[in-house]
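Please decode residue identities from the backbone states below.
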């Protein structure tokens, strides 16, 4: 979400360069939380409608895609705030869709005995690359400027989707488990 925006400059940068007041910036950042809550509430319905694989793929797209609005944030304060608000809200929604659907998909595919190892390796890759990305973002921001660096970061995040498209993820399904109010299937011993 917007942390990449802030890692490229000081936290005062949006308030200075875009003319956003601290209160308006707080509202923009709060929209990410609202998007996350709504995303978490709707993910189950999305998974049931389109399947776990497609929902995960949708989350892989919906998380970074709204960030295209971040480098577009310029002009009037209203336009800049609207771009940042929508980027933060949309990314919050997308990250929850990705985390919930992707986590469920991973849990269904990885044998229980290997889950902790897979989770550890995944976290090493996910969190281990962040300092390198922060250094690269800072260097690029200082070298070519903030806005071009934001475009590179945003488009790079979207290109990450290309690794998943040739996979079988779209075909993945998980057998639905009845919720508390639904009748349980009768099983004979």
């Amino acid at each position: 979400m917007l942390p990449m925006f802030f890692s490229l400059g000081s936290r005062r940068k949006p308030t200075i360069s875009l003319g956003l007041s601290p209160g308006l910036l707080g509202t923009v950042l709060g929209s990410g939380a609202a998007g996350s809550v709504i995303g978490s509430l709707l993910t189950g319905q999305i998974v049931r409608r389109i399947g776990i694989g497609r929902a995960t793929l949708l989350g892989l797209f919906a998380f970074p895609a709204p960030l295209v609005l971040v480098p577009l944030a310029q002009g009037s304060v209203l336009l800049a705030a609207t771009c940042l608000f929508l980027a933060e809200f949309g990314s919050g929604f997308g990250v929850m869709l990705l985390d919930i659907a992707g986590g469920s998909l991973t849990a269904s595919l990885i044998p229980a005995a290997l889950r902790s190892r897979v989770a550890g390796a995944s976290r090493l890759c996910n969190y281990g690359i962040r300092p390198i990305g922060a250094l690269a973002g800072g260097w690029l921001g200082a070298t070519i400027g903030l806005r071009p660096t934001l475009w590179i970061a945003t488009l790079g995040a979207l290109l990450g989707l290309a690794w998943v498209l040739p996979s079988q993820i779209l075909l993945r399904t998980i057998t639905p488990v009845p919720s508390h109010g639904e009748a349980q299937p009768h099983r004979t011993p």
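Observation: Confidence is low (pLDDT under 50) at residues 1-12, 185-189.
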